[in-house]
C-alpha cells in the first residue's frame, strides 16, 4: 500500500510548502529563467519569508543574511553550479532542498555522498538483465538523478560532496563545464536542458577527507553558510524547527517554553565559542560541533520523553541525557570540558539551579 502525503514521516519541501509555492507563483510577475517555477526574486522571498501584496504570509525557511540567499539564487540563474559550505548543522541541506523545490518544483533528484558513492550513481548505470540479454541499449540504461535533472532542466542535489572519493567527484567536471553527459557505450550523450544546475553541499569538518580538485572547485560558486550570528537568530531557528518537527512527528507534548530553548541555545553557543555570552569567562570547547541542528534534536528528544513518559511539559531532566550526549563525543576529553562547564558556569547561575541538578544527576 502506498502511503499518502499526510502519512509520510517527512514530506518533501515542495509538498510541505505547496500552498506557499502556489501563492508565490500567482503573485510572481517577474522574469523567470527558462524552466524555473519562480523568478529569482520569488525564490529568495520563499526562502526568507515575508508578506505578499495580497496579505498571504510566507514562512521563513532560512534565518540569516538575505544577501547570501540572493548570491546563491543568482548563481543558479547563470551557468555555474552552487556549493554550500560550512560547519555541520548550518542548514546547508535544508537550503539546498528548498532551493530545488522553489526553482524546479522537485527536490528529489538527490545523490547522497558517501565513501561508497560510485561513478555510476553520479552518471548512469545499467540494468544487467537487459544488458546481458540485448547488449547496451537505451532500454538497459538506468539514469542517475543527475542525468534525469539534465534531461528535464531541473536542479540536481549532491549531498556531502567531500565524502565522495576524489576520482568519482571529478566525473562531474564534464557535466558542469560542457553541460553534457557522454554515453560512450551508446555512442551518444545527454545534453542538459536549460534550467539544469547542480547544488552541492560540503562541511568543513570533512576538509582533508576528499579535497575537491582545483578543476572541480572552479566549476562551483561557493557560498559559506555561517552559524547563526546572534543568540536571538539561533533561538528563532530552534523554535521554528522544533514546532514544525513536533507537528510532523505528532509528539504528545506542549511546545517548549522559550526559557528552556534559550538556555539550551546559550549552553551550545558558550561551549562552541569557548566563552560565556557576557565574555567574562573563558571555557574549553568540546570536540563536538554543537550545531543548531543538534540543539533542535536535543529539544525534540526531550519533548518525546516529556510527552510519552511525563506530563507533557518539557523540563530539564527531559533534556539532560540528550544534551550530554550531544556534548560528550569523546568520553575522556569532552567529559572534562563538560564537568568544568557545569561547576564553573552553570552552578554559579542562580536561575539555572534546576538545570545544574538535572545535568549533575545524569553526569
Molecular structure report:
This protein is 47% helix and 12% strand. By secondary structure, the chain is of the alpha/beta class. The chain has two domains: 13-224, P-loop containing nucleotide triphosphate hydrolases (Rossmann fold, 3-Layer(aba) Sandwich); 231-362. The strands form four sheets. Strands 4-7-10-3-11 form a five-stranded parallel sheet. It has a two-stranded antiparallel sheet with strand order 1-2. A hairpin with a 5-residue loop joins strand 1 and strand 2 (57-58). Helix 3 packs antiparallel against helix 4 (66-76) and helix 12 (231-249) crosses helix 14 (292-309). It is globular and about 75 Å long. The chain starts with 12 loop residues before the first helix and ends with a helix.
The CATH H-level homologous superfamily of the largest domain: P-loop containing nucleotide triphosphate hydrolases
CATH architecture of the largest domain: 3-Layer(aba) Sandwich
Measured between the Cα atoms of the first and last residue, the distance is 46 Å
The helicity comes to 40-55%
The coarse silhouette is globular
**H/E element order:** HHHEEHEHEHEHEHEHHEEEHEHHHHHH
Radius of gyration: 23 Å
User: What is the CATH class name of the largest domain?
Assistant: Alpha Beta
Q: How would you state the average pLDDT, rounded? A: 91
Per CATH, what is the topology of the largest domain?
Rossmann fold
Amino acid at each position: 500500500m502506498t502511503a499518502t502525503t499526510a502519512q509520510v514521516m517527512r514530506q518533501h519541501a515542495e509538498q510541505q510548502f505547496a500552498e506557499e509555492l502556489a501563492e508565490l507563483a500567482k503573485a510572481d510577475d517577474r522574469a523567470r529563467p527558462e524552466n524555473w517555477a519562480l523568478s529569482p526574486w520569488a525564490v529568495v522571498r520563499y526562502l526568507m519569508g515575508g508578506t505578499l501584496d495580497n496579505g498571504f504570509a510566507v514562512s521563513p525557511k532560512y534565518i540569516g543574511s538575505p544577501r547570501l540567499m540572493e548570491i546563491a539564487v543568482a548563481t543558479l540563474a547563470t551557468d555555474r553550479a552552487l556549493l554550500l559550505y560550512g560547519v555541520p548543522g548550518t542548514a546547508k541541506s535544508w537550503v539546498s532542498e528548498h532551493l530545488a523545490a522553489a526553482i524546479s518544483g522537485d527536490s528529489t533528484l538527490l545523490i547522497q555522498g558517501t565513501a561508497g558513492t560510485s561513478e555510476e550513481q553520479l552518471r548512469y548505470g545499467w540494468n544487467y538483465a537487459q544488458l546481458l540479454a540485448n547488449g547496451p541499449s537505451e532500454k538497459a540504461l538506468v539514469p542517475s538523478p543527475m542525468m534525469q535533472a539534465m534531461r528535464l532542466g531541473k536542479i540536481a542535489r549532491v549531498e556531502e560532496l567531500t565524502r565522495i572519493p576524489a576520482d568519482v567527484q571529478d566525473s562531474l567536471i564534464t557535466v558542469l563545464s560542457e553541460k553534457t553527459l557522454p554515453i560512450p557505450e551508446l555512442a551518444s550523450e545527454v545534453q542538459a536542458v536549460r534550467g539544469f544546475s547542480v547544488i552541492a553541499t560540503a562541511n568543513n569538518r570533512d576538509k582533508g577527507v576528499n579535497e575537491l580538485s582545483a578543476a572541480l572547485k572552479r566549476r562551483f560558486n561557493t557560498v559559506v553558510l555561517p552559524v547563526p550570528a546572534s543568540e536571538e537568530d539561533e533561538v528563532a531557528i530552534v523554535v521554528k524547527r522544533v514546532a514544525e518537527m513536533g507537528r510532523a512527528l505528532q509528539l504528545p507534548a506542549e511546545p517548549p517554553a522559550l526559557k528552556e530553548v534559550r538556555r539550551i541555545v546559550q549552553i551550545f553557543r558558550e561551549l562552541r565559542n569557548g566563552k560565556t555570552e557576557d565574555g567574562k569567562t573563558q571555557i574549553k570547547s568540546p570536540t563536538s560541533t554543537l550545531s543548531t541542528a543538534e540543539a533542535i534534536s536535543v529539544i525534540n528528544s526531550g519533548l518525546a520523553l516529556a510527552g510519552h513518559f511525563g506530563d507533557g511539559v518539557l523540563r530539564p531532566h527531559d533534556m539532560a541525557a540528550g544534551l550530554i550526549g550531544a556534548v560528550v563525543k569523546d568520553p575522556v576529553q569532552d567529559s572534562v570540558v563538560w564537568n568544568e562547564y557545569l561547576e564553573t558556569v552553570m552552578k554559579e547561575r542562580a536561575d539555572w539551579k534546576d538545570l545544574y541538578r538535572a545535568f549533575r544527576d545524569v553526569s
